[in-house]
Amino acid sequence: MEVVETKVKSGIIEKYYLPTAEEFAIDKSITVIENDVNLEEYKEKVKSFYKSIFKSIEDDYKYLIDNLSPGSLVDSSLLSSVIFLDDYQARTLKEEINDFSRELINRFGEKRDGTNAYSIGTYMLLKKNQDQYKKK
Q1: Which end is more exposed in the chain, N or C (fewer Cβ atoms within 10 Å of the end residue's Cβ)?
Q2: 3-state secondary structure of 60
Q3: Which residue segment(s) compose the domain that 91 sits in?
Q4: What band does 17 get if pLDDT is binned at 50, 70 and 90?
């Protein structure tokens, strides 16, 4: 982590950090469930991995809100929606998203003069309550 900004607020020095890692590496042991895996240990690994990702997103969101000003959302984008896929479409879309994400990292993953760091991420999770969606 690298300190990128400090502010004094009510006599307390607040430090704002940016991660120095260029990308996350996913522990291979959480990508596939083996038959002999301890399910509770596996769940804890997955939970820890996702918790670290969402913590980073939460920190960036809080920073955005704390520094909100006219025009500050110009370079931000947020999209969240529900789509309906069969198993094949879900696997295919996941692969396309992963390929596109790797392409972005290859193109823009290094700090250059005149650039700013942006958080970018994608998620695709099976919705908890399938019954709330009715067929049209």
Answers
A1: C
A2: helix
A3: 79-111+120-126
A4: low
Of 56, 102, 105, 97, the closest CA to residue 79 belongs to 97
DSSP state for residue 92 in the 8-state scheme: H
Whether residue 136 is predicted with pLDDT greater than 80 in this model: the reply is no
The CA–CA distances, whole Å, from 127 to 1, 47, 74, 81, 84 equal 33, 17, 30, 11, 10
Does 7 reside within a domain? no
Q: How many Cβ atoms sit within 10 Å of the Cβ of residue 67?
A: 10
Please state, in angstroms and rounded to a whole number, the distance separating the CA atoms of residues 109 and 131: 40
Q: What is the CA radius of gyration of the chain?
A: 19
Please report, for residues 28, 96, 109, 133, the alpha-carbon distance to residue 103 in angstroms, rounded to integers and kept in the order given.
Answer: 21, 11, 9, 34
User: Is residue 103 included in any domain, yes or no?
Assistant: yes
Q: Write out pLDDT tens, residues 118-135.
A: 888 888 889 988 888 877
The length of the chain, given as a count of residues: 136
Percent composition of the chain: helix, strand, coil (DSSP 3-state, to 5): 40, 10, 50
Total number of domains in the chain: 1
Angstrom distances, CA of residue 46 to CA of 53, 56, 71, 126: 11, 16, 37, 15
